[in-house]
Design a protein that fits this description.
Shape: globular
Number of domains: 1
Structural class: alpha/beta
Radius of gyration: 17 Å
Largest sheet: 6 strands, mixed
CATH class: Alpha Beta
Order of helices and strands: EHEEHEHEHEHHEEEHH
CATH superfamily: Ribokinase
């Protein structure tokens, strides 16, 4: 009989990226690298490549609920990671799913734009996430452009966005890298008023799926029981290494290398 201990299960609610750079494939690879078992629940289908997204379709809520309920009934979910939702109705669907997982940490990556800039939902999706999902998330992980959308501050700094968003959040990680600074600044704002800054060297080029990689890794660390500040540091360090080792399989952005080349032997 197989006596290997079970890996922590992370329920991933996100969209499918056919290029394999972002979305559920990014979640699965990042979680495998953390020693977790990913349970991917598809919320949306997209038409995209490493350059940009051209179209998307949000799945029917009954299909998403059925997927999630099948996982929850069978597997011991230790954390939940949110990615692309695409509609206000899907925000409400996630709320219903989370009612069955009241003590499970939720990592909310508010995916509102593709790496190439294309929209992955109307602005009202961002507002619904802010009002409905951020309050129940253990941590939200927007990049600065997404934080500006959520905070309704088109030119706001990370600190200004955090001041506007913290009343909705338990904890907030705003990632940098969208300016021209040599050092990337990632800022973790805690509900108790404290703040932790993490810096890393900017790498050249653009990357497809870096936000998915970070949020999934963070969910995996929380699923292992790691404390939030330590889990954020671990996730940021791992994500930076995947970008350092990234490859360019297509005509657009680099894709993070989340698994070692010899992963499959």
């Amino acid at each position: 009989m197989n006596s290997h201990p079970s890996r922590p299960v992370v329920l991933c609610l996100s969209g499918h990226d056919p290029s394999g750079g972002a979305g559920l494939q990014a979640d699965i690879e990042a979680l495998l690298a953390q020693g977790c078992h990913a349970a991917p629940t598809v919320t949306a289908l997209t038409v995209q490549d490493t350059v940009n997204v051209s179209d998307f379709r949000v799945l029917d809520r009954d299909w998403v609920l059925a997927q999630a309920r099948a996982v929850i009934a069978d597997l011991p979910v230790a954390a939940v990671k949110l990615g692309m939702l695409g509609s206000v109705e899907m925000v409400e669907t996630v709320l219903e799913i989370m009612q069955a997982l009241p003590d499970v940490p939720l990592v909310c990556d508010p995916v509102l734009r593709a790496g190439g800039g294309g929209a992955l939902g109307k602005d009202d999706v961002g507002y619904a996430m802010r009002e409905r999902l951020l309050p129940i998330a253990a941590v939200a992980t927007p990049n600065l452009p997404e934080a500006r959308i959520l905070a309704e501050l088109p030119e706001g700094s990370a600190d200004q966005c955090a001041e506007k968003l913290l009343p909705f959040c338990q904890n907030l990680l705003i990632t940098g890298g969208h300016g021209d600074e040599e050092q990337i600044h990632n800022r973790l704002y805690l509900r108790d008023g404290s703040r932790h800054d993490f810096t890393c060297v900017r790498l050249p080029g653009g990357y497809h799926g870096s936000g998915c990689t970070l949020a999934s890794t963070l969910a995996g660390r929380l699923a292992h029981g790691e404390g939030l500040v330590s889990a954020v540091r671990t996730a940021l360090d791992y994500t930076w290494r995947t970008l350092r080792d990234a490859e360019a399989p297509g005509r657009g952005q680099f894709v993070p290398r989340r698994l070692p080349l010899d992963f499959c032997g």
